[in-house]
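$ fold --in a.seq
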Amino acid sequence: MIKESGHNLERLRKLTEDLPPIQSLRDMVSERIGQLIEYDTERGICTGIGLYNTPDVAVMRFAMPKGSFIARHEHKNEVEIIVVYKGKMEFKINGDVKVVEAGEVALLPRHIAHTVEALEDSWMIALTIPASKDYADAR
């Protein structure tokens, strides 16, 4: 996990403090491009939009409401990188607990089981290398 310096983290917080609430992401996406992707998790819905997708890399923007939980799973073919830019998330990776806050990054290697929980309303950018089949519709 990479941590930003305090100065950069404060700049990032100022840039993201006026983001719309998670509930409005659906309306914003529908108005702008109509490309909405939702994952029904055990405790809430993770809402996202595809930003870029090639066979080599997929990039998604996601929002997870506080309390949302993605069950234990692993990526068989791809590495996933999560950049949290607002909120706080907990990743349990191979039994280790990592709390990732705005301005920090989580690296989820292939073949390593993990869970994800939003400790606060959270916004993130997710990348998979190569592109995940789960992100196949993101264009």
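$ fold --in b.seq
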Amino acid sequence: MHDFKARRLSAGLSQAALGAMVGCNQTTIGRVEKGKETTPLLLKAIDAALPKTGALPKTGALPTIPGAATPADLSGMLATATAAMHEKIELQAEIIGSQRETITALKQTIVALEKRLEERKDART
């Protein structure tokens, strides 16, 4: 069994902070600490990231997991997601504008039909 939790707490790290250091999330760190996650590469990365003495590792000495997203990758993903959201918002604004025009046209049609109905009623009397 690993002493990851004690070492993490000794270093003053949250599960989320440790997860960010090794490229996983807080839930995964929790599973590792409970012995439910035993992926060797992840265990090795966590072991390397946590100081043996409780001191925080120096920046740049942090291990990475092959295939894990880098800050540049995350920045690119965020930019892509932001652009996609802006496109959706613009499309929704166009749809709302179109719906408003349709509602206005329907209201005008109803008014015209009500007027014609009144005219027919007046013509019969």
